[in-house]
User: Fold this.
Amino acid sequence: ELLLLSEVEPLKLKVEPLKLKVEPLKSEVEPLKSEVEPLKSEVEPLKLKVEPLKLKVEPLKSKVEPLKSKVEPLKSEVEPLKSKVEPLKSEVEPLKSEVEPLKFTCNFFNVSTLRLRSTAV
Assistant:
């Protein structure tokens, strides 16, 4: 269907501002086009490197899935244990400060005993 002349003029008026917007964008695109070619040449070697890696990953994926299924039930077992261990940790902390001086005394005693034994021989 042909456009009437009266329809063409309003369309032309709409197109002109759009052309003004497009021209600066074209000038921005041109330098980018020149950057694309070198990048394309870099892509091929990278693709070649990726292929063997993909082949290595696939068997690993198949090993990981069964492990995941084993880990999930263990997680549920660990949670109750954590709640039991935490209170024990808080009980052990104060004891640590009491044990340290005793370690020193024991070490001192062992060294003294060894000296006595070595002088007695």
